[in-house]
Each structure stands twice: as structure tokens, then as C-alpha cells.
Design brief:
By secondary structure, this protein is α+β, with helices and mostly antiparallel strands. The protein folds into 2 domains: 88 residues; 114 residues, Ribosomal protein S6/Translation elongation factor EF1B (Alpha-Beta Plaits). Helices cover 57% and strands 20% of the residues. Strands 1, 2, 3, 4 and 5 form a 5-stranded antiparallel β-sheet that branches. Helix 3 crosses helix 4. It starts with a helix and ends in a 10-residue tail after the last strand.
């Protein structure tokens, strides 16, 4: 329909019909704008908001994962430092024989420093402890109570990580009721005999890596 024909039809309409036609045209325009422009725009913005929210959740998840990874790495580094410190406290020696010899010499040094007299020493058979080798030395000493206490303190708090597996303390003096003369005459207490087994872990190659 040409514009002139539309205008002619419009001129023939009454005022009331023109108002109704204007309302109808306005309504059509509003419907067209709502479903042709506003509707698609709202759908686009909704999809965009959903996408943004999903991406934000992904970013937050990645940040939490990264934070956990950083914590795990920090924990691993801390444990690695502790392990290296503990490794230095093990008995040095690349083989069980060398490690047992070093342990025996170390125990003898502690005994000499504490004032104990060495009676016997015996290197025990090594054993497997997890991925490492456990070595042991059995010794018999003779001395008084303070010397034994100093020796055990040196074993427990020394530079090496050692532990006492067995401990037996006996008195070497005679038992019985002393005579009145013996009670009146103070005499030195007889020494004690201590037999113990000291164990340690060698620094050398772990048992699982041995061929």
C-alpha cells in the first residue's frame, strides 16, 4: 500500500477512529520493541550474567586450589627440612658394619666421659626398619649410679638419635646383714653392673635401594 493511499484512508477516518488507529499502531510498536529489541537484549544480558557468574566460580575454585597447592608445597618443604635435620642425627656409615663400628665407638666415648668401666661389647645383627637399617650394640659397664645416669642422659640427648632397647642393672656387692663393726666403718658402695642394648638407624643407603 502506497503512502498516498494510506493518507487518503486516514483522512476519511473520523477523530474517534483516528484515535483508535493511533492506539493500535502504538500498541504494535510497543509489542515490536518489547519482543524485537528488549526481549533479545534481556536474554543476552541474562546469558552474560550466567556466564560471568560461572567464570567467577571457576576463578574462585582455581584460587582455592592454588592456595591449597601453595600450602601443600610449603608443608612439603617444611617436612623436607625436618627430614634433612633428622637424617643428620642418624648413625653415620655407608654399610651396617661401618655404622655399627661408629655406634660402638660413640657409646664407648660416652661411657669414658661418664666414668664407666667397659666390661664387654658386642655388635648385634642388623635389622630392617621400614626402608632403613637398624643397628644395635650390646655393652656391659661397671660404675656408680651418677655415672650411669650421666651415660644414659648422653645416649638420650646426644647428637645422634639413639634409643635403649634393653637395660639391666645389677649390684656387684655382697648381700647380707653387715656386722656392727662394718656398720660403724663407712666404706665405699660397690659399683653397679649395667648391661644394655643401644639401637640406632644408619645414615647409609636405605634397605629398599640395595641391590
Amino acid at each position: 500500500m502506497r503512502l498516498g493511499t494510506v493518507w487518503a484512508v486516514w483522512q476519511r477516518l473520523s477523530a474517534r477512529e483516528r484515535r483508535l488507529a493511533g492506539v493500535a499502531v502504538g500498541t504494535l510498536l510497543l509489542v515490536g520493541i518489547r519482543y524485537g529489541i528488549i526481549g533479545p537484549y534481556l536474554s543476552y544480558t541474562t546469558r552474560l550474567e550466567v556466564t560471568i557468574e560461572r567464570d567467577l566460580r571457576r576463578v574462585a575454585k582455581m584460587q582455592r586450589r592454588q592456595a591449597r597447592n601453595d600450602q601443600v608445597q610449603e608443608r612439603v618443604q617444611t617436612l623436607g627440612k625436618r627430614f634433612r635435620v633428622a637424617q643428620q642425627q642418624l648413625v653415620p656409615g655407608e654399610t651396617p658394619t661401618l655404622a655399627a663400628g661408629n655406634l660402638q665407638a660413640h657409646i664407648q666415648t660416652l661411657a669414658d666421659q661418664s666414668g664407666l668401666q667397659i666390661v664387654t661389647t658386642q655388635v648385634m645383627r642388623e635389622d630392617t626398619l621400614g626402608s632403613y637399617r637398624k643397628i644395635a650394640v650390646k655393652l656391659t659397664f661397671r660404675g656408680d649410679t651418677p655415672a650411669i645416669a650421666n651415660f644414659l642422659s648422653g645416649v638420650e640427648y646426644g647428637k645422634w638419635l639413639l634409643f635403649v632397647e634393653r637395660l639391666d642393672v645389677r649390684s656387684t656387692g655382697r648381700h647380707g646383714v653387715p656386722s656392727p663393726r662394718a656398720r660403724s666403718t663407712p666404706r665405699k658402695r660397690p659399683p653397679l653392673t649395667i648391661t644394655l642394648e643401644v639401637d640406632g638407624i644408619m645414615q647409609g643407603i636405605p634397605a629398599s635401594n640395595e641391590q
